[in-house]
Amino acid sequence: MSSPPLRLWSGQTLHKRFFPFEREFRYALVLIDVDIDRLEEAGRMSRLFAVNRTGLFSFHEADHGGPERTTGLRAWADDLFATAGVSLHGGMIRLVTFPRHFFYKFAPLSLWYGFGKNGSLEGIIYEVRNTFGERHCYVARAEGERSVHFADKSFHVSPFFDVSGQYRFTLREPASTLDVVVENIKDGSRTHLANIKARMLPATTSNFLSLALKNPMSTLGVTFGIHWQALLLWIRGAKYFSKPLKPERTTTVAVSVKARAAIAPESRP
After folding, report:
1. What is the pLDDT of residues 143-175, one digit of tens each?
2. How many CB atoms within 10 Å of residue 225?
3. Residue 191, SS3 per DSSP
4. Element (H, E) at 74
């Protein structure tokens, strides 16, 4: 049985800093999960959800891909997957992201899951956005039910971390739960961790209404939370890094642990 064109994920995210001092916080979140080839169907699933028009909650294609995107979402994603050697051969692409709430949307991380025709997860795009309105994508080939990828940090996200070191992405193929971990690694040590853990919910009108009542700030609350936590870090004395120039490249290919292990011996003297 095929998956629905739209579904929800309800859970929480944890952020933990390890250096130069430890600090952590977590907050609840609800994400939408759309089949990008079935957006018209997704827009008919609930009176409280719209596609490419204003609604209590909505999804707008223009919110993704960045200003450099000149094609539809499907073609854009296929081209991006190809940079990591991933070909889906027409298989499903599901985008997990924060919904637009009325006129506002901010998605610090959106996940593009690319599946082959046989239904197996073949690739992943981590679409990252900062509060300055900039985007960057990390793309990788999936490695079975659990994938671990490394990529050089290429994009300014937080003023309390410079653009150096690496990201380590740990991803599980979504089933009844969603499980994603992003770690900052610098000089062999972990400096920060962020994760998403959530369970699947049907995209019903009652679930959208529950979201509106329980979390009326919705995605606006995400932006407020980011700035509030930044203020607390600044008060505590975390070092502030000025925003660097936007990188010329908008995409970075992440390498899996398996591929990294295969390359490493050849690089040894």
Report:
1. 888 999 999 988 877 765 677 889 999 999 998
2. 16
3. strand
4. helix 73-82
